[in-house]
Amino acid sequence: MEHNKRNHSALSAIFNEDEKRVDWHDETLWFVRSKRDRAVHNVPEWEQLREYGSEIKNHTLSNLDQYLIEFEKKARSNGIHIHWAEDAKEHNEIISEIIRNNQVKHVVKSKSMLTEECDLNSYLTSQGIEVIDTDLGEYIVQLRKEHPSHIVLPAIHLKREDVSNTFHSHLHTEKGNNNPQYLAEAARQHMRRKFIFSELAITGVNFAVAETGGFVVCTNEGNADMGAHAAGIHIACMGIEKIIPKAEHLGVFLRLLTRSATGQPITVYSSHFHKPRNGQQMHVVIVDNGRTRQLGRPDFRNSLKCIRCGACFNTCPVYRRSGGHSYHSAVAGPIGAILNPNINMQENADLPFASTLCGSCSNVCPVKIDIHDQLWKWRQALTKKGHVSSGKRLGMKMMSFVVSYPSIYRVAGRTGRWIMRYFPSLLANKTINSWYKQREMPVPPRQSFRTWYFKNKK
Amino acid sequence: MNSREKILAAIAINKPAFQPMPDVVVDIKYDYSVLVPQFLNILQINGATAVWVENVQTIKDDLQKNIAGGHYTINTTEVLGIVNEEININSNPAFLDPVEIAYISGTLGIAENGAIWLEESKMRNRLLPFICQHLVIVLDVTKIVADMHEAYKRITLGNEGYGVFVAGPSKTADIEQSLVVGAHGARSLKVYLLS
Questions:
Q1: Could you give the 3-state DSSP secondary structure of residue A108?
Q2: Contact state of B171 with A268 under an 8 Å Cβ cutoff
Q3: ipTM of this complex
Q4: CATH class of the domain defined by B30-194
Q5: What is the DSSP letter of B136?
Q6: Which residues in chain A are closer than 8 Å to B120, comparing Cβ atoms?
Q7: Would you tell me which of A305, A374, B115, B140 could form a disulfide with B167, CB atoms 3.0–4.6 Å apart?
Q8: Cβ of B176 and A223 within 8 Å?
Q9: A5 pLDDT band (50/70/90 cuts)?
């Protein structure tokens, strides 16, 4: 039963209870997708950029160990401390140790999906360390004890009145004042004190450059920089796949990233960190957490090319109507559905089925990941390993049997039409027929296409 | 085996067959005569104010007006006169917190997206462009390039400890996708293009 609660369709049903909100969510994300389209159409060489993005990532994955070694060497000579973490636990322990060694009590953190994946906040909080998420959307969900529902737009599942209520209880803003300008200003004022007095800042990494031993962090709010430049210690966390070979490759990826994400030509700040400032400690934690395992799966290794733009979320008809929390993972959406089964096959076996396989995700992906093909391949791999429910397995077996024998298929079709005509209530029963939940069944046709064809072929 | 060795060994076993690195040559047909107007235009779309001035005196007057108006103004660029030496690499965040307006020199600007490259050596303190309430960037008009590819040809990463592309005022749309200017960084960006 516990497993059922963490099931995509069960969690979507909860999200779908508020139809107006689902409509808003759907339309808003589609609007972001349209902004992406407009931005992309302004770049005539877009397809060429995508191809380069894809080829650079393919090349990098094929030489990943060498690039990590090169990055480590250059970064060390730049004065950056490099740490390696095999899994989430070691990642959290490394950070915790740096915090303890420096007797730090207050930590600010900008957006990093990796630290979400490793559940760093809970770990540090359990050790009595205060961590504040400084990205406005992440801060909102942190106050509400929720998780981001989108990798780029963490609070996209919330309405302004939700934010207003949350800020009223935590920041004592006026009750009922839902003005986004007013609410964001309240967060700015509150966070400024946190930045100024923070001792340690954690950031993510968008790109780490092997050639120069530095890394790039992109934000619109400026929160990563406020944290990193104010604190005495900066820790940047990256998955092994964040490496790119050369500085010139940033030209390709920064052109692709934000246009795909929000339709902006570039984020407001693209910060290039190469050396700690005078008197500062700078650390980079390089994390595996299952990525090398995914690298060894020929059908799925391509997922490691992801630059976390979120375009596949915004375009996905299932994501837009089920919400990010229905994916019960740090990374939701189509890309999450192909990454998460690698992290935990049993717990995330439902995710590759949360798709219509329409292929829109693959079409918008700036680094040409074959997302919908991988969703389909995961379904097969998971079914073979016995990770799908017995109902689904039985249904698939029956379906396969019926469509394998034309005569049985024709009998089944006739029976189906007969039942639809004479016992419509049986089909309208939502417990038996879950297809009926959000839709009406069509009027059954009098005859099959085959019968019609034979009658009319002259 | 420590984690580093384990990770590197796992990659060595699991990585795909070697694939060559592409030579990135993007065919762009930019009309260089329109780069500057395009740069000014995109900055405005990004929410910045962009002004093209013939004479540095215009910017100096603007700086003096801000100082005379009682605004805590910091100049880091010698082109505009006396530099505020009290702000330096060691200035702590609480000391920088009250800065209202900061003038900083940009190194180059990009016509395709309005981004301007700021180097650590020009900003005196890494926090200054972010913690000031209002940021003013002075950029030589001859330093505009077409796109990101051109920009990276002219920047040598790693020469300086830190550098940033700034493409507008700090902003967020995290509340219901409503655009709010002035998230955590500077509330406004004004760019002076100098002939």
A1: strand
A2: yes
A3: 0.97
A4: alpha beta
A5: E
A6: 277
A7: B115
A8: no
A9: low
